[in-house]
Amino acid sequence: MKSILVIDDNRLIRQTFKTHLTSEGFDVSVAVDGGEGVEKFQQGEPDLVILDIHLPVMDGLDVLKRIREIDDKAYVIMITAFDDMKTTIQAMKLGAFDYICKPIDYDELLLSIRKAHRMREMDTKLDYLVTEASQGFSIDNIVGRTPGMREVFKTIGMLSRSTTTVLIGGESGTGKELVARAIHYNSVNREEPFVPVNCTALAEGLLESELFGHVRGAFTGAVRDSRGKFEIAQKGTLFLDEIGDISPSLQSKLLRVVENREFSRVGGERIQRTEARIVAATNRDLEESVRKGLFREDLYYRLKVVEIKLPALRERREDIPDLVAYLLQKINRQLHTNVGKVPDSVMTMLVNSTWKGNVRELENALTRAVTLAHGDVLLPEHLPLLRSEAAGTDLVTEELTTLKEMEHRYIDHVLKQTGWNKSRTSEVLGITRPTLDKKIKDYGLLDPRKQRDMHEKESVTRD
Ligand SMILES: Nc1ncnc2c1ncn2[C@@H]1O[C@H](COP(=O)(O)OP(=O)(O)OP(=O)(O)O)[C@@H](O)[C@H]1O
Ligand SMILES: [Mg+2]
Fold first, then answer.
1. Are residues 205 and 325 located together in one domain of the fold?
2. Number of structural domains in the chain
3. Does a structural domain hold residue 303?
4. Which residue, 288, 315, 179, is CA-closest to 237?
5. Same domain, 381 and 408
6. Ligand 1, closest atom to CA 174?
7. Average pLDDT of the chain, as a whole number
8. Residue of the nearest CA to atom 29 in ligand 1?
9. At residue 159, does pLDDT exceed 70?
10. Dmax of the chain from CA atoms?
11. Does 299 lie in the same domain as 194?
C-alpha cells in the first residue's frame, strides 16, 4: 500500500497530512473537494483514500458512495468529529474501512493504514484463491469439441446468470461432478460455497440430518444443534450426487425445498428458507425409475428444469485424442512425470476402446500406464486392457482367410484372454454355453491347464 489520496477542504489539514504521510514513505496526492476527489480517484485509483466527512458541495458520504461505485474494494478512512457519530455509522455502513476523529492522532492513523494494508493483502489472496478454485473447474478444464459436448458448454453458459435447478445425467465417469462444479464456478454466486452431498453414502436418517441439520435431542447422539448442508451452502450450490438413490420419504422432503425453498432442521419447528441452487446428478435412468414408481414424478420434473445429459465416451470418440493429451498433462503434473508421446498405434487403440467407465476409466488407464512407463512414451504393453483388443485386431489384419478359420482363431483368442473362463467367453462372444462347448470340441481347442494336468499325471504314472 503506497499511494494515498487525501480529500479535505481544509488547507492546513491537507498540508499536515501530506507532510506526515510523505515522511512515512507514502506517495500522497490531495483534493480540495468531492468533485476533484472523485476525479483523482478515478484517474489514479490510489491504494487508500482519507476522506473528510464534511465537505462543501458534494458531501463526504456522497463522495464515499461514488468511490465505492467506481471500485467496490476501495479502502476509505473517514475523518470525523466526536459529535458526529451518526454520520460516521452511516459511513461505515456505506463501506468505509475505518474512521478517525479530529484532532488527528497520527499514530492511530498509521495503525489504521497498516490494518488496511493487511486487509488488502488478504483480499487479494482470497480473490486469488477463488480464481484458482474456479480455474480448476472452469469450462476450460472440460475437454470436448463434439456437438454433444458443445451443447453442454452452451447450457453451462446459459446457467451462469440464474440459480435454476439443474439435473445432470450420464453414465458413471462421464464428468457429472466436473460439470456441476463448472456450473457453480461460472455462476454469479461463485464466491459462495459449493457443497457436494453423496446421497448413497449415508443411511436415510443420517442423510436427512446431513441435508437439513438437526436440533439438539432430535435423536440419540444429537447432543447439539447442527447446521445442514442447505444452510452451509447459503447462496451457493448444493450438489446432490446420486439423487436416484434417495428414499421415498426423503424425496417428499426434498420436493418441499425444491418447490417452496423451505425446510426445517430434523426435530426442529422453525421453518428456514434456502437460496442455494440445487444441482442433482444421477447415472440412473430417472424416467424409468418414475415409471417403476421408485422416484416421485413431481420431484423429477422439479429437478429437471434444466437437464444436461452427458454423452458416454464411446459416443464421442473424436474427443479422445484431446482428452488423452489433457489427461496426460494432468497426470504428469500430479506424478511429476513427463510421459507425453503417444504412438499413433496406441492412440488408435485408445480411440477404439469401449470405455465402459468413460473418462474416469480412461484417466485410470493412463495413470497406470504413466506410472509403469520408463521413458516419455506411452507404451501399449502398459495398457493391458487394450492389449487384448489390439490382439483381436491383429487377427483381422493378417492374411485373408475363411470365416471358419477366423472363428476358430477368435474363439481361441477369447478363451485365452479370459483364462478359459467359459461363461465369460460365451458372454463376450454372444453365444450360449452349449454352443461354445460344441465349437470348442469341433475346433479341437484344448484348455492349457488340463493339458498341463495330463502331462503331470503321465509323468507320475511313468515314475
Ligand atoms: N470432459 C472432460 N474433460 C476432462 N476431464 C474429464 C471430463 N469428464 C470427466 N473428466 C474427469 O474424469 C473423472 C471423472 O469425472 P466425474 O467425477 O465428474 O464423473 P461422474 O460422472 O461424476 O462419475 P460417477 O458417476 O462415477 O460419480 C474426473 O477426474 C474428471 O476430472
Ligand atoms: Mg460423480
1. no
2. 4
3. yes
4. 179
5. no
6. 21
7. 87
8. 360
9. yes
10. 119
11. yes
User: Closest ligand 1 atom, CA of 357?
Assistant: 26
319 with 350, same domain: the answer is yes
245-257 tens-digit pLDDT: 999 999 999 999 9
According to the model, what pLDDT value does residue 392 have? 47
**How many whole angstroms separate alpha carbon 64 and alpha carbon 61?**
5
| Among candidate residues 260, 279, 311, the one where a domain is terminated | 311
d(CA 338, CA 87): 62
Helix (H, G, I), strand (E, B) or coil at 430: coil
Protein residue with its CA nearest to atom 15 in ligand 1? 175
Q: Which ligand is nearest to the CA of 326?
A: 1
Q: Which domain holds residue 328?
A: 314-388
Quickly state the pLDDT bin for 387 (edges 50, 70, 90). very low
Per-residue pLDDT at 391 exceeds 50? no
The secondary structure of the chain in percent helix, strand, coil, rounded to multiples of 5, reads 55, 15, 30
Ligand 1 pocket check for 139: Cβ under 6 Å: no
Residues, CB-to-ion distance under 5 Å, ligand 2: 177
Question: Is the Cβ atom of 244 under 6 angstroms away from ligand 1?
Answer: no
Any domain includes 318? yes
C-alpha to C-alpha distance for 310 and 81, rounded to whole angstroms? 62
